[in-house]
Amino acid sequence: MVERLSPEARKSALAELSGWSELSGREAIQRTFTFKDFNEAFGFMSRAALVAEKNDHHPEWKNVYRTVEVVLATHDAGGVTRRDIDLAKAMNAIARQLGVT
Amino acid sequence: MVERLSPEARKSALAELSGWSELSGREAIQRTFTFKDFNEAFGFMSRAALVAEKNDHHPEWKNVYRTVEVVLATHDAGGVTRRDIDLAKAMNAIARQLGVT
């Protein structure tokens, strides 16, 4: 079982994660990605979904046309773990390839 | 430009749309789909995304593991139009093929 990060570890991981921040009112991290259009937004989601499924660790996300709001937390651990940080990094890498930094 | 449905027309369209209801506080329709797992939920989203893109009419949707909450409205028309009803029907047909009625 993967361990919940301490507030300090969470903060230090977030400092290296462009665009991500703490979600207020809940132990989770969030980022809103804004793409050029729906094609790019859903392309991002499709690639991220494959990563999520492969690692059996899934996002909560909302898509409205060209935006994708993502919330990551590890339910079993009751907070943010290394698995969330890894998925956030993978999402940033995919977005970067679509020109979103 | 596609016309906003009257409350009566909306109600009568909804009566034929299994699982859909009016969204409270906003002129829109909603349905929450619950699939077997993330694979099926995202498979549903992928097929629905292709329909949405083809018709240039996109949903607002949120996915958490095996659930997909969908809200449909036509921004330009300030309410629900035939385009929303058509997309809702298409989504129901896709879900039905995945065993969700």
UniProtKB/TrEMBL annotation, chains A, B:
Gene Ontology MF term list: 4-alpha-hydroxytetrahydrobiopterin dehydratase activity
EC number(s) recorded for this UniProt protein: 4.2.1.96
Cited InterPro entries: PCD_sf, Pterin_deHydtase
SUPFAM superfamilies: PCD-like
Catalytic activity entry: (4aS,6R)-4a-hydroxy-L-erythro-5,6,7,8-tetrahydrobiopterin = (6R)-L-erythro-6,7-dihydrobiopterin + H2O
Annotated Pfam families: Pterin_4a (PF01329)
CDD domains assigned: PCD_DCoH_subfamily_b
Record keywords: Lyase
GO terms under biological process: tetrahydrobiopterin biosynthetic process
Family: Belongs to the pterin-4-alpha-carbinolamine dehydratase family.
Protein name: Putative pterin-4-alpha-carbinolamine dehydratase
Protein's organism: Bradyrhizobium lablabi
